[in-house]
Sequence to fold (284 residues):
Amino acid sequence: MTPRNALLAIHLGALLFGLSGIFGKLADTSAEMITAGRSLFAVIALLIFAKLVSKVRLVNLGLRQTAALALGGALLGGHWWAFFEAVRISGVAIATLGFASFPAFTVVLESLLLRERASRIEYAMIALVCLGLVLVTPHFDLSSQATAGLLWAVFSGLLFALLSVLNRVSTQGIEPAQAALYQNITVLLLYLPFAWPTLPHTQAHNWLWMVMLGVLCTGLAHTLFVASLKVLKARTTAVIFALEPVYGIAFAWVLFNEQPTLRMLAGGLLIVSAIFISARLVKH
Fold:
């Protein structure tokens, strides 16, 4: 893959991740059903990718590695469930911006759990993200849908940050496709019992959106992300993925008429700018 193709791939991957909230809103069913359906089709897509496209050889894993991947799957499933709950309650824009807090959580968790000292730039990024989240919420009221949805989205970002840190320390020596496959199998096993009562009532168009989530926003997006990392620097991919909330908000505005307020736009600009500047300036 050439650097130009890698840039195109990572932009497409960021766009697909940004569409997760759109497909989640279009799938008019419970967050548990969406999470289980997404993991089902992600498993199918990742199996095809592992066997036919990249010819990844699935290796036997020890008990410790298997347990770590299972824990990662639980975090991944929780992240998806909380995010789709945020989309259901408050819409795509707020859910996407709340989730965009995960880089700030990652910095804090790496400092606390891995004893990695954060730089002044990263502390500034955390402050800007916090200020951006305050602006996104017009007023803090737990009975307000906007506030409740934002809290679910921020919780989703926290779980994703935990997953990122866990994957960093526990997946060394494991093919990314195999790690993603095992984690998605865990999500499916965990959420299928909760989704089971909803299965007979799930309409065909909802299955279509779950296929899109599993194949495009998980299987294909993950494949593009992994492939691009073989060519691009980590900071370059991080900068591009800072555009994910922009894609999500733009599509929500066009498709669902979720017109963001000036406060929300200002908060989103702070969050995206903080991630963008931090990724550009911090050495990896």
About this structure: The two ends are 22 Å apart (CA to CA). The mean pLDDT is 82.
